[in-house]
Structures are given as C-alpha cells and as structure tokens.
Amino acid sequence: MEKITDVREGVIKLLTIREHDIPEFSIEPRKEGEFVDTFIWDGKKIPVFNMLYDPRIYQMQNWGKRGDNSALNVYSYYASDVSLEECIYRELVIAEALLHSKIKKITAYVNKSAANMIVLMEDESCANIDLGNTMAPGTINQCQHKLITKHGMANDRAVGTTVTCNQVNFFRSDSTDTVYYNDDLYYLYGMSEPDVAKAIAIHAILTGLEQAGDWTERDERCRAGVKAVFESDKRGGSVALSEVL
Amino acid sequence: MADVRPVKIAILSCNHGHAKGYYHLANDRMFDLVAVSTQEDSERLDLLDPKVPRYKSDAELYEAHPDLEAVIIASDNLSHMEQVREAAKRGIHIFSMKIPTFDLDEYREMIEITEKAGIVFQIELEMRYHAPLCRIEEMIKSGQIGDLLSINMINYSHNPVWWRWWQCNPEKSFGKRVELRPGDERFRGGALADHPHVFDAIRLVTGSSFDTVYAEPAPNIRDGVETEDMVRIIGRMKNGAIFSIDPSYGNDEQKVKVQEDWEKYPQCVEVFMSAVGTKGTVVADLYGKTFYSQRGVDGAYMCDMVEDIGLWAIRIHEFYEHIRYGGTPRVNLRNHYESIVTMLASYDSITTGKPVKVDATLDI
Question: Which residues of chain B have pLDDT under 50?
C-alpha cells in the first residue's frame, strides 16, 4: 500500500479522490511562540486546529449542545517534549469547542511541569483541566475528556478505563514493550495521527465542511488563556480573559 | 480458632446510604447485631435479617438492650450530634458515617465528650482501605515518581436524592440552610458535602495538608435539586504540590424511590487519581477492578466494581479490634478534622469567588 508521508500530499489526495479542484495553498509550520501550523489559502491565514480533528474529539463536538452542557472534565498528561504552554493551549481550544462557549475567566495553580485550572465559560459551564508534561519524550498523550450534560455524558475514554486504547497492539517475543499503531484513515495510511488530523482539517476548510471563520479569533483567545493561567497562579486568584486579551 | 468475643452492636436510623452495608453484621462472627432503630425513611430494611429486632426510636432500642457495646450511627448528618451525645453518655463505642458534622462547635464537642467517655470513635472512609491507594502512597513517598508536582482526584457518582431525600436537603445534609453564593438558587449540602474521603485520600498519599483552596460549581445537570450537583476544587498543598478534586454527582441514575435497579450510567462510582512527578506520571483507577455485564432488566451495559472477596467488612473489623484490643482508629475525629475544615473552606471559596486559606488548627 502506498504511504502518504506529508500533510500537503495528504490534502491533495483527499481532494483528488473526490474530484475537487486543487487550489493554491500552503502550510506554514508553526513558528516560535505559536502552537499550531498555519494554513494559507485564498489570501487568508488560518490556524490549523488539528486537535479538533482527533476523531473522538470531533465526534464529541457534534454530540454536545449549547446551553445543555454543565462541565467538561479533563486530565491530559503529555511527554516532556511538549511544552506546558502548548498543553494548556491545546486543551483550551478543545474546551471551547466541546462546551460550545467562549472562555470568560480562568483560575489556575501551576507547579513547574503541572497545571490545574478551572475555566469558566461565558455560558457558566466549566472546564476543569489537570495537565502535566513529565512523561518520557514520545509517550502518547494520556487523557480523558468527559463532557457532562443534562442529557447524558460523552467521553473519549471507555467507562472503566483511564488510558488511551490503541487500535493495533503488538506484543513482542523479545521485549515486554508493546508496540502499538493507531492508523486513522485508509486514504492517509502511513501518516502520523496529528498529521492525519491536520490534513482532514484543511480538507474540511477547503471543501466547506468546516466554517473556520472564527479560528483566528479563537487562536488569540486561547493564547490569551495560556497567559491567564500563569497570571492567575502568580496573582493567587482568578483572571478574566478580557484582562489579558 | 481464636476466641472471638462478638461485639454487641446496633445500627441507628438506617437512613444513611451505607447503613445497609452493615446489615450483614447479623451473620458476622465478630459482631452480634442485636437491633436497629428505624424511621420513616430507613432504607432497604427488606435486606435486613428478619430476626434482628427493630425499634421506632433510639430510646426504645437503648432501653431494650442495656448491654449494647457499640453503635453505627447511620443517619442524616443533622442527627449525628444528638446521637453521639446519647451514645457517649452511655459509654457506647461509635462507628460514624463520613461526616460527623459540618458545625465546628459541634465537632469540638464530639471530640471532648467521646474522649472524656473513653470510647472508640471511628469514622468510615472507605478509600482508606483500597490497595491501589496504598500503592500510590508508596510510589509518592518512596520517591519513585520524583518530586510530587500535582495530585488530582475525581470521584464521580450518582446523586442519591431520588431515594434518599435528605442527601440534598440543605438542613439534613449540611446542618443548616446556607446559600451557595450570592444570587445562586442553590444551597450548600450537595456533591461536595458527600465526599470527604477524597480530601482524606489526598492528605494520605501526599503526607501533607491543604494550604489554599479555590472552588467553582458548574450548572446542575438535574432539575429540582436545591444543592450543588457539580463542583470542582483546585489549590495548593502545604508541601507546594498543586491539587484538584472533582467530587461531582457527574454520573446519571434512574430516578427511583427505592434503591433498586437504579443504575443508569455504566459505572455508578468512578474514582480516578493521577499524580504528576518529576520522574513521571501516574494515572490510576482506584475502583478499576471491574466486570462487565449486560443487565437483564433493560439491556443496559454495566461496568461494576468487583468486591474484595470475603473481606468487604475490613473497616468494621478494624472497629472490632479497637474495641477489644485498644488503639486509635486510622480515621478518628482529630485527624478527620482537617478534611472537614477544608470542605468548609471550599464552600467559603464558592461563596466569595476567591481562593481561601485553610486553617485546620484544632485548639483542644
């Protein structure tokens, strides 16, 4: 099977198989101080929220309804090659998407490589987020996003489990280390999970499946949210997002 | 076989959720369940051995059984003080549910009268008896995970209010009616008031005390409940580690009047603990030994915690040991005080909207 190894190549393949025209576009890797890549197309620069195209997170966005959500409970632990700022940013983007509301206020405690926060949204729902990044470089993110609503709950973990379930597990004869694979999409076989998510996100924007009109504004809000987390810890109290935006 | 001298014990009120967990003492070699007192809202008395005498009041029970040695106070939180006074006056050992009282004057009185009476006062905190918690405590205290940076705990459960009305009644649960915060229609006495064991567990595994707490409620997920359903607490321990606690009633349940076929969410109680250290991260499911089934009644998929085979009664057996052989229970009034004070500080944080410093100095 032919393997796709590049996000741009992946986007073109997805467009081609559905016989869309291939527009002029480029993908700018994230720069210093940025948390996501930038998609440049039609005179626009759009931050690529690939975390929203994790298949489980994507499904949960469509499951929750505005006004019906109470709380989002998140624990998310990362490898040490992911900065704490990036962990925070990523989870704030997800929180806004799953709760269908904007960040209003953040109260946080930070301790070196760990941060705990309560994020109050404009609709009074809360995202409760525990983060850390002390696992060995390359370790897969271990997380739970549990959305609790008046009509039930949705989660990216099965009840009775706490860690990521892998799709293909290889138990070796020469080592106790398990090898696992999580290939997401047949057409993009061979790409890493984050790259698959990027390709699908860009494909969605190009084909009108994703209305990314507010993504730039959300990027600014969540970057301000990262500042608010550290400011709250420093201040020993809550920080309204409007104070740091 | 050891010469066991069964303790003559009674269960008072039988309207606490854990009361029925002790009905089995009617057939326990270390206890002689001589009687229970009941009231209109006593729970699942159909599960109690019919040979065990039942009385309409504690007074009748005490009068009929003057040789009683111990009681399990299994009532609503508002009734505890009076029942402690009566038991202490009679020199009867007390096994208390997890909230002795939220009134700190009453709490101090409980310490004074039970110590003066020389009786055992043990508090039931079930997490203390979980082996996975011991493992995490050892991993932290041995330095296996490096310096502890954060410790986090989730205790999601059902809300029992449909079959145990007092559980979300502000007076019966919290002891008095106190508004949650200005302008909020809810009152203290809900999910936060029901879960002291998570505060206790964090103190245990860190070997530290709470320094500062900040708490925020989320909107209730149930209509018609006047106390908080959903609440989150974060803050810092005195050793510098940060913490989070989520004791919410986050798992849905059937709205039944009797606690039978009531589960709706696959696992009614979930308890997770995670610890971030400089040498790695622990992610643990403290209620994680589960088995999976499809329920016959409605086809619901269930994920139930497995029992500790033959050892479920470990906490009440500790009570037996202290009555017969002396010693101080691992959870007693003095060392539980800090957890109660921290819970009250969390409520104060909700009221004020600000972090609150915890002062658990006990001046007696």
Answer: none
Mean pLDDT, chain B, integer: 95
Write out the DSSP string of chain A. Answer: -PPP--HHHHHHHHHHHTT-----EEEEPP-TT-SS-EEEETTEEEE--GGGGSHHHHHHHHH--TTTEEEEEEEEEEETTS-HHHHHHHHHHHHHHHHTS-EEEEEEEEETTEEEEEEEETTS-EEEEEEEEEEPTTPPPEEEEEEEETTEEEESS-TT--SPPPSEEEE-SS-SPEEEE----GGGTTS-HHHHHHHHHHHHHHTTSS-GGGHHHHHHHHHHHHHHHHHHHHHTS-EEHHHH-
pLDDT score of B300 = 87
Q: Does residue B37 sit in helix, strand or coil?
A: strand
| B243: chain A residues, CB-CB within 8 Å | 109, 116
CA atoms within a 13 Å half-sphere pointing along the CA-CB vector of A82: 24
Beta bridge partners of B121: B94
pLDDT digit string, tens, across residues A154-209:
999 999 898 888 888 888 999 999 888 888 888 898 899 999 999 999 999 999 99
> Do residues B23 and B51 lie in contact, with contact meaning Cβ atoms separated by under 8 Å?
no
Residues of chain B with Cβ-Cβ distance to A164 below 8 Å are none
pLDDT given at position B340 = 98
- CB within 8 Å: A150 and B281: no
Residue in A115, A160, A237 nearest the CB of B303: A160
Is residue B234 within 8 angstroms of chain A, CB to CB? yes
Give A-chain residues touching B288 at CB under 8 angstroms. Answer: 160, 162
Contacts of B219 in chain A (CB under 8 A): 70, 124-125
pLDDT at A147 over 90: yes
The answer to whether A63 and A154 have CB atoms below 8 angstroms apart is: yes
Tell me the nearest-neighbour CA distance from B148 into chain A, angstroms.
9
Each residue's pLDDT tens digit, A73-103: 999 999 999 999 999 999 999 999 999 999 9
Q: Please state, in angstroms and rounded to a whole number, the distance separating the CA atoms of residues A54 and A65.
A: 19
Per-residue b or e along B27-53, where b marks 16 or more CB atoms closer than 10 Å to that residue's CB: ebebbbbbbbbbeeebbeeeebeeebe
pLDDT digits 0-9 by tens, B7-34: 999 999 999 999 999 999 999 999 999 9
Across the interface, whether the CB atoms of B221 and A159 are under 8 A apart is answered no
Give the per-residue pLDDT at B2. Answer: 66
Q: Distance between CA atoms of A15 and B147, rounded to whole angstroms?
A: 50
Residues A112 and A134: their CA atoms lie apart, in Å, by 10
Interface of B with A in 118-177 (CB under 8 A): 146, 149-150, 152, 154, 156
